[in-house]
Amino acid sequence: MGRHALVLGTATYRADPKLAALPGVRRDVEELRTVLDTEGDFDSVEHHLDLPAAHMMQVVEEFYGARRTGDLAVFYYSGHGILYDDRQSLFFGTIDTDTALLHTTAFDVEGRLRHLLNHTKASQKVVILDCCFSGSFTARHRLGNGVRQEPRRLKRERGTFMLQSSDHLKASKAQGPDRPSVFTEVLLAGLRGAAQPTAEGGWITASDLSRYAMTEMARRRQDKPVESSEGVTDPIPLVAGPGERVQRPPSGRTEDPDDAPFDTDRWRRLLGYYVGCLQRLAVLQFFVNPGDRDTYLAAPAGREVIFSATEAIPLKGSGRQLAKLAEDSGRSLQYGYPVVALQQKGKQQVRLAPLLVASLTSETTGRRTRHHRSRAQL
Asked: What's the pLDDT tens digit per position in 313-324?
């Protein structure tokens, strides 16, 4: 199994005065490259600063095209994130980006990175984005106007873990020329040992890093990062934990066929995966208190309709009231499925924990309110 990382950043923007220079990106790229190179036992850590758009496209395509089955591919970008006019499509800024010509002078994240992630042979993929609006790009299917925009993934296209500095409508924060950005500074601290390692051999995994980043960003009173994943059932070791000897982490198991019988080992892995989901929920604060009846609404009985929707879902009655309450209070609207009930030993209070959580957006057309799924998290 090969371990490979590509670290990109754009600090200088020469073509458009609307894009301010981000000198701290140089620290982001250099310090992250050093940590991965010295503590992660990577076979290669490629890094680039201030690439033109065409060169960035080539570098990223070559990176994913060179990966083989069993490889880990870690991708990182720091710089300006730019939303297209549709307020959904994300572009990475490059040294020659003109915001009036994004498709030809910037890196199309949804169009290019999505395609490469879906078709690389790498078995494990980690994407870390430190840019404004980075949460608009997630590991799961994108929906526009409530309609699925891409086909179901093939088997080899699974295994992607993403961690982004901000949600789909928020900016990320720099800290000046001599310090990394707020988010990358937190990541660096986690990778240098502040994150609690849980994997075999004391390695800090992608999930360990995410949990630390969520907690530390909240402690700093910063916006919550966004985590999402697609088909990640095994830990993804990134760097050796503090005091651990840097050596190759255990290889990931061979993925079972979809029709393989559920033996004891598969049940153990599945339950372990669910436990990991619940641990992330504790950090992400997606637990639901059944007693707060004004803050949630149970979906009607029957088949699941939100994740499987092919068009926007009309909201009526209580659903419409809940959407309006979320909008008026400045809070996000979430949908969770399936849900498990948790009760702490010795206590009567029960909390509801959705294993898959999606952020919803709503719009009012005439006298009807409809909602769309905008992103999903595991």
From this structure: 777 778 778 878
